[in-house]
Amino acid sequence: MKTRVFVFFLILLSQFIQSQTYQGKVLDAITSEPLETVSVYFDGTTIGTITNSEGFFSIELPDNKNTKSLLVISFVGYQTLTINSTSLKQNTTYNLIEKETSLDEVVLFDDWSRQKKLNIFRRQFLGSDKATLKCEIKNEDVIKLVYSKSNNQLYASTNEPIIIINKALGYKVYYDLVDFEVTFTNCLNCFRGVKTVFYSGTSRFEELSVKKVKSKYIKAREKSYFGSLLHFMRVLSTNETDKFGFKFFIKAPARDSELYFNTNVETVFEIIKNEDLVKVKLLQENKVVIRYNIIEQSALLIQDEDKTFFIDDFGIHSPVDKIIFGGRFGNSRLSTMLPNNYYPN
Q1: CA–CA separation, 311 vs 50, rounded Å?
Q2: Does some domain include residue 221?
Q3: Is the pLDDT of residue 150 over 90?
Q4: Which spans in 160-262 are helix H?
Q5: Cα separation of 36 and 76, whole Å?
Q6: Stretch 18-23: mean pLDDT, rounded?
Q7: Residue 217 lies in a domain
Q8: Which of 178, 207, 236 is the last residue of a domain?
Q9: Degrees (nearest 5) of the Cα angle 167, 173, 177?
Q10: Spatial strand order in the sheet of 39-42
Q11: What is the pLDDT averaged over residues 142-166?
Q12: To the nearest whole number, what is the mean pLDDT of the chain?
């Protein structure tokens, strides 16, 4: 009798593990030939693998994690494929389409040197804090940079992932850039002339330390994590912002007032826990100032009528294009970015 119960438990355990493991095959869309060494990963995490000689892959999510993170299938020379995690199915065949080769566009009035454009790109992509000094882009030659005089904007694009060695946090990052643009004010000769920055893409993290993570990386990651946007979204979803030192400030009711006063999380957000995701509704019309441990300050503003967003088990918020961040949240760049599946000890 005991043996039967034990076997039954193993069967249930096996089914549970399999429910978190996704398998599939990657083929060339035209020839149907299997593609080997294709990168398959969950966006923004260290969870990734590559296809074998038959184009087969198997990838597993941590137990009990419901996530909005995209599954990304990326291979040099082919169009990147992204799949919503809620749409994942077992033993699916994915067909990659080869990228069209085209001549570089001729851009008029691009009178900036490549070095000037590259300096601005590094600063806005990697960041401007101390950690940036320990970051290096290994393949800058793949980055195409164009300055449009008429639009007063700098654009960047690539045909393959940007490879970043982050010796501040101990990660090797592969960033598949989708969009990058910097809009300038009239002060074109100084970095303070940057008006807005927007970039998007998918990322995969690898440990620099193969055997054991160095203690300096562990300390640096914890310092980067606490007070970060990832930290904030996680504790907001569990309604523990007060416990972890986050304070909220909202604008005074008078229309002509610029004063902000301290308030509580219940006045700012309505938090509704669902089975898969946490639904958050902003209850304020104006921006909300968020302070962490007195010193660090950020701001949040939702440009949407329903003022609603969602947070998954990793702390990833969506839709990302609804929310505008300022302060620490808005100024954070790749040099301080942690994998979405990172948790402090």
Answers
A1: 28
A2: no
A3: no
A4: 215-225, 229-237
A5: 11
A6: 71
A7: no
A8: 207
A9: 135
A10: 48-50, 39-42, 71-74, 81-83
A11: 93
A12: 86
